[in-house]
Specification:
Blueprint (H helix, E strand, L loop, with lengths): L1 E7 L6 H12 L2 E4 L7 H5 L2 E16 L9 H5 L5 E2 L2 E2 L9 H5 L5 E16 L2 E8 L6 H19 L3 E8 L3 H7 L4 E6 L5 H14 L4 E6 L5 H14 L2 E6 L4 H7 L4 H4 L1 H19 L9
Helix pairs in contact: 1-11, 5-6
């Protein structure tokens, strides 16, 4: 089973549009690992099959029958999460200092639900996505849980491929999305920070020894910067598998809950050609890693 991560060094480059289009050609299990703000489901319109609670953090719990109301926990809590011998769950950071200072062992750290993993059917096949609760932490761990679920489903249905819609940036959820994949598809647009964003993302890929290809989206909005991106990729040995022109049809398709491959025939052909080039990389078992 192969796994592809579609990522970008910043948000808004069009990676979710890419994943939605590839879904129609790939016969893959899809996983939206942007757990802080998933949006692939807005295009896929999934039929949710299972909602799995994710317990990512611990929260303190005070046993009122045992508590002697000495106030030691309240004084020790630097997050002001204990008032009147009660824990305010929204403030508790799960640091564990309060049970250490409690003289009567009245406080216990317990896992709490901080998000969910959803499994679903779509018109393109099976789909998994994670959603972290507002203000919650440990997003990277939730990504790991979502990816494991996607693997389970792929094994069950016999899917040869998982396509991961990764978050933007290079933080913990991106690291959890890229690690142990077979290919990183880097989506970039010609902005002033484009090469800098690519460099950051490539450092993550290099750490995990993940082979990388690139797609330049909206290449025609600034062809001078596009040339800089092309030169950068050539110097790094990164193949550009597609250059996509700016088109309002991408937005029109999203508004209608469609992929661009479903919405526009000419762009569908372009996306299919890009996907076929990506497949060549994924299926080449002897493909060497890029030098990044």
């Amino acid at each position: 089973m192969k796994q592809i991560a579609v990522a970008s060094g910043k948000g808004g480059t069009g990676k979710t549009s890419m994943v939605a289009s590839f879904a129609g050609f790939a016969g893959a299990v899809l996983a939206d690992c942007d757990v802080d703000a998933p949006n692939l489901h807005l295009i896929l319109k999934p039929e949710v099959v299972e909602k799995i609670p994710y317990r990512g953090m611990e929260v303190a719990e005070i046993d009122s029958d045992t508590c002697i109301e000495c106030g030691a926990c309240e004084r020790a809590c630097r997050f002001n999460a204990i008032e009147n011998f009660r824990v305010i769950g929204e403030k508790c950071e799960g640091c564990g200092v309060c049970p250490l200072v409690c003289p009567v062992d009245a406080i216990e750290m317990k896992k709490r639900v901080t998000g969910h993993v959803y499994t679903a059917h779509t018109r393109f096949g099976e789909f998994v996505y994670g959603l972290l609760g507002a203000g919650e932490e440990a997003s990277g761990k939730l990504v790991t849980v979502a990816r494991k679920k996607a693997v389970e489903i792929a094994e069950r249905v016999g899917a040869p491929l998982i396509i991961i819609d990764a978050p933007a940036g290079i933080g913990c959820p991106v690291i959890a999305s890229i690690g142990n994949t077979d290919l990183l598809v880097m989506v970039v647009e010609p902005t002033m920070a484009a090469v800098h964003d690519m460099e950051r993302l490539l450092e993550v890929a290099a750490h995990f020894k993940v082979n990388t290809v690139a797609i330049i989206n909206k290449y025609d909005i600034n062809e001078d910067v596009t040339k800089r991106i092309e030169d950068f990729c050539t110097a790094r040995g990164i193949e550009i598998v597609g250059k996509i022109p700016f088109s309002k049809k991408f937005t029109e398709a999203m508004v209608r809950g469609m992929s661009i491959a479903e919405y526009d025939a000419s762009l569908a052909e372009m996306m299919k050609n890009i996907w076929e080039r990506i497949e060549e990389y994924v299926n080449a078992s002897d493909e060497s890693h890029n030098s990044v």
